[in-house]
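Re: Re: ligand-bound prediction request (bumping)

Still looking for help on this. To restate: I need the protein modeled with magnesium ion bound, output as structure tokens. Inputs repeated here so nobody has to scroll up.
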Amino acid sequence: MNAFANIRTIMKRELSGYFTSPIAYVFLVIFLLLTGFFTFTIGNFFERGEASLVSFFTWHPWLYLFLVPAVGMRLWSEERRLGTMELLLTMPITSWQAIVGKFLASWLFLALALALTFPVVITVNYFGDPDNGVIFAGYVGSLMLAGSYLAVTCMTSALTRNQVISFILSVMICLFLILAGYTPVTDLLTRFVSPVVVDVVAAFSVMTHFEGFQRGVLDTRDVVFFASVIGFMLFTTGVIIRNQRAG
Amino acid sequence: MISVEHLVKAFGPKLAVNDVSFSVERGEVLGFLGPNGAGKSTTMRMITGYYPPTSGRIMVGGHDMVEDPIAAKRLIGYLPENAPGYADMTVNGFLNFCAELRGLQGDARKRAVHRAVELCFLDSVLYQSIDTLSKGYKHRTCLAQSLIHDPDVLILDEPTDGLDPNQKHEVRGLIKRLGENKVVIFSTHILEEVEAACTRVIIIDRGRIVASGTPAELKARSPEGKLDEVFRAITLPDTVKVKAEARA
Ligand SMILES: Nc1ncnc2c1ncn2[C@@H]1O[C@H](COP(=O)(O)OP(=O)(O)O)[C@@H](O)[C@H]1O
Ligand SMILES: [Mg+2]
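Reply:
Sorry for the wait, this slipped through. Here it is.
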């Protein structure tokens, strides 16, 4: 199929773009150091005395808040800054092929970063007898979470040719997606508005849907939620890219 | 091969292109001449499918650019203004990427890249990254990209901009040669360029076509037979334009 070939070509270029500069390696090292730091120091991995990766996954929504926008901020803003967007969109491909190709490349890169955390899985299996099904669900959830943030970043990067603005906007939107369902915030909200409203707001939060995965529950509704965020954000990216040219 | 009917592009209240119509056949080299801001790039961006037109119709090789953009875009090779390229890629990587997007695979792709590299004299910089290229090489890399699939239609936005006189001469020669069995549309604000390479000229000013014909026909309009006099007589300089707009 033509569409797949085009998406693959775009993905390949985007991925090799990460690895031809030192940025990719710097990112991977920072990611691994931070996950290690949060898990073992702040998360009290060993002191908890339980064979699970709760202290590992709990931090992901916060860790990704900065790392994912950093990975995705250049996706479209760089195309606009260099003027290559004009080349790309006058090629015989559709804009959604370009959007999906770029998104998948960055998502794959994040998946690689996540895969490199495998030593924690080995560690926890060495010291105890964890439920590896729960760990697997946690990884799936983490990947979906990263994908959702990334789709947000994709959208913000289409808005501006400035990567820094794209980064800041993305962090702000993702922060909202966290806080809407972050327990301290929802507890505070229940004092002012009715619990129904709080539930509705929380339903839009990644936290609400990420928790299930951490408990080892692969709930379709949670999967659908993350898939919808990704779909909606990529669709919006397409609308933005089209409107910019419509004048 | 290409026909454009009543093309209009509005940016807000401003009409960047205002009712432009023309058609070009194989074997013609059409020069778009006009002062800065005349609407040359905007017209080309519509023909190549980058900007959707506000109204009007664009047919490329029998395909409507709005209805069937993929088929129309296949026929076109495009050099955008300022010759953009991915800064982090090598010339070779970039050309292979473009060839792949053009649907070229395996040996066909290798041959296409090789041919484009020869045509544009890029051998010496093949493995250099694009952000380290001099302006002339960067321009030629982007030009090579537009030629890679040996397209029937070439749209070149200021193809000699920023080149030194030797390079300008080479590129004009290349345009002329390619124009023998393709459609070439290129824009410029350099008058000699038009005389050197075009079979037909369209002069655009403030979004409208103000004159068209062969270079010889246009020259005949001035008593001295000079193209720049014709150009100055029918287009307005920037300063006058501002006053005219203020009055309107
Ligand atoms: N994306 C855009 N948004 C708003 N105005 C634009 C845009 N692109 C071009 N214009 C305006 O349209 C006019 C024609 O521009 P352009 O086609 O680039 O001229 P040329 O290539 O002949 O120098 C200019 O006045 C320019 O300011
Ligand atoms: Mg221009």
